[in-house]
Amino acid sequence: MRTTLHMHGPWRIKIVRVPTYESGQFMTQSVVQPLLGIRILDLTRLLPGPVATMQLAGMGAEVIKIEEPGLGDYARSMGHVRNEVSQFFIAVNRGKRFLRLDLKDAAQRDEFLRMVDDADVVIEGFRPGVMDKLGVGWETLKKRKPDLVMCAISGYGQDGPLAQTAGHDINYIGYAGMLEQNVGPDGIPALPNLQIGDLLGGAQTAVQGILAALLAVKMGGPGRFVDVSMTDAVFAHNIMPLVAVNNFGKPALPGQDLLTGGVPCYNVYRTSDNRFMAVGALELKFWEGCCDVLGRPDLKAKHWARGQQIGGADAMAVKAELDTIFAQETLAAWTQKFTAADCCVTPILRTDEAIRHPLFNGRGVVKLVAHDTEGDYWQISPSIKFRA
Known about the structure:
By secondary structure, this protein is of the alpha/beta class. The chain is built from 14 helices and 11 strands.
């Protein structure tokens, strides 16, 4: 039987500034949340770990975020702060409980160890070896609780030549060959504003590993240590350049691969009002539908699958024709024309437009909520919905 977690002690501070989702507000009723009864101790900060535990909280887990005394998680003060806490911190810490604990203090460390007795998962994002130095490493914790799952998120893994090297998203995607493929018109790698290393490599991979380890435990197996290298995970997902290396010995030049602009049927086109449409007509039937809407049935035979060389002169000549056509009308006009065509041609929206789009509002994905100190802000629901 799980014991009750008591909120007491001079170092314990319960923080209730971050709103949580009420049952039914964004998620389905709590009876179908698959992780109800799972308790997670979250020692992470900034982006990868907090997003991972936020996702687990969205599946019903009880997440207790443990921050060091003082400023706590750096994200609290990162970027713009209206009053007391940043929107960044609010955005990635939904649905958690918050405590302050100094693991360098013996008494508080003992308190953490007692919390481990009633936990299912411990997740941390320190450099390899820090947890051991604090006296709460994997060898210590698994002896205390053999069925514990512990996840460590790091830039380059718990071992290897760069294990102790500092890094951030830009470094991870640079090493993994992803950033070299994301090049702007000036030939300089463009930094994506979706942190691929942190979110795909760190958060999503951690959730995947934690859930697999929890399943093994629930099936009667021992606890597991989950070693998540953000760089390894990005590298493992760099599929198309790897395919090119296996085929030709090297990746395609930036902007000239199948999914990076090397074919006219999968590309972006500027409209007359300096906006962009996304054409994803990879399948022939979609390309033919696109050509019909554009009034150019003669281009149907120019689909990349009909023998065009990816990134070659023929492909770029067709793209140039589409550039001219799309430049003749506005984003709104093209959107209206393609809405009923069902050929994978859509507008490229700004985030403020996406928030108000029927696509997300129709599923109750976005809601304007009020924060105790920071006022109204947009909140996006968990991306997985469960039904009984």
